């Protein structure tokens, strides 16, 4: 039976010495390996098994080498054109949206532009409608309150004027009554003096 040492096997298979040692140590090839101290002999069957294993796991060059350099270059150029086209389309979309935004009349310092989903926009729109009606209701209540307050102020002013007028009238009538009482008192005193009911020395 013909055998080979590890160096001969590596040269025969066209692989490295390390590769031969790798296969030698695998259990599946033990029956084809004979070792006596440092001397290692490999059978022809070992060579055939390793060769078959290498060819089975080696990439198929026929498949990978079917395309020429020209074809690879053309494919690369096609992919590059697609990439440039996609980038340009994205740039056009961005510039289009940016153009729309730039045409909007808004104060960038005090105003802002937000992006909503359709659902969020509907919720926001409903909230604005509710706020509008609530604001109108509050404004109407405020107007009504001011009118009520004004009418009450006017009513208070009216009664105040009436009170002052009544007070003036009462003071005037009271003054007239005091004068009348004083006149009656003086007349009664004079009559009493004339009738000698009281002394003339009294101050009449």
What can you see in these coordinates?
The structure is a single chain. With 204 residues, this protein is mainly alpha-helical. It folds into 3 domains: 3-58, Orthogonal Bundle (Multidrug-efflux Transporter Regulator, Chain: A, Domain 2); 68-113; 121-204, no CATH class. It contains 6 helices and 3 strands. It has a 3-stranded antiparallel beta sheet. A hairpin with a 2-residue loop joins β2 and β3 (39-43).
Give the N-to-C terminal Cα separation.
Answer: 179 Å
Instruction: Give the strand order of the largest sheet, numbering strands 1, 2, ... along the chain.
Output: 1-3-2
Radius of gyration: 61 Å
Q: What is the averaged pLDDT score?
A: 76
How helix-rich are the residues, as a percent range?
Answer: over 70%
DSSP helical segment count: 6
Category by helix and strand content = mainly alpha
- Number of DSSP strands? 3
State which percent range the strand residues make up: 5-15%
Low-confidence stretches: none
Q: Which H/E pattern describes the elements?
A: EHHEEHHHH
Overall shape: it is rod-shaped
Task: Give the tally of structural domains.
Answer: 3
Major sheet, described briefly? 3 strands, antiparallel
């Amino acid at each position: 039976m013909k055998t080979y040492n590890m160096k001969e096997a590596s040269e025969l298979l066209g692989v490295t010495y390390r590769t031969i040692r790798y296969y030698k140590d695998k259990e599946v090839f033990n029956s084809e390996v004979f070792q006596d101290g440092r001397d290692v002999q490999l059978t022809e069957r070992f060579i055939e098994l390793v060769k078959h294993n290498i060819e089975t796991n080696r990439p198929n060059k026929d498949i990978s080498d079917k395309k020429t350099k020209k074809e690879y270059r053309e494919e690369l150029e096609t992919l590059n054109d697609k990439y440039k086209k996609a980038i340009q389309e994205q740039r056009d979309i961005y510039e289009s949206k940016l153009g729309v935004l730039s045409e909007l009349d808004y104060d960038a310092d005090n105003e802002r532009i937000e992006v909503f989903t359709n659902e969020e926009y509907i919720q926001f729109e409903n909230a604005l409608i509710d706020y509008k009606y609530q604001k109108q209701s509050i404004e109407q209540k405020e107007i009504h309150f001011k009118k009520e307050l004004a009418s009450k102020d006017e009513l208070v002013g009216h009664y105040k004027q009436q009170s002052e007028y009544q007070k003036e009238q009462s003071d005037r009538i009271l003054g007239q009554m005091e004068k009348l009482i004083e006149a009656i008192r003086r007349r009664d005193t004079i009559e009493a003096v004339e009738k000698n009911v009281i002394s003339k020395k009294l101050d009449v």
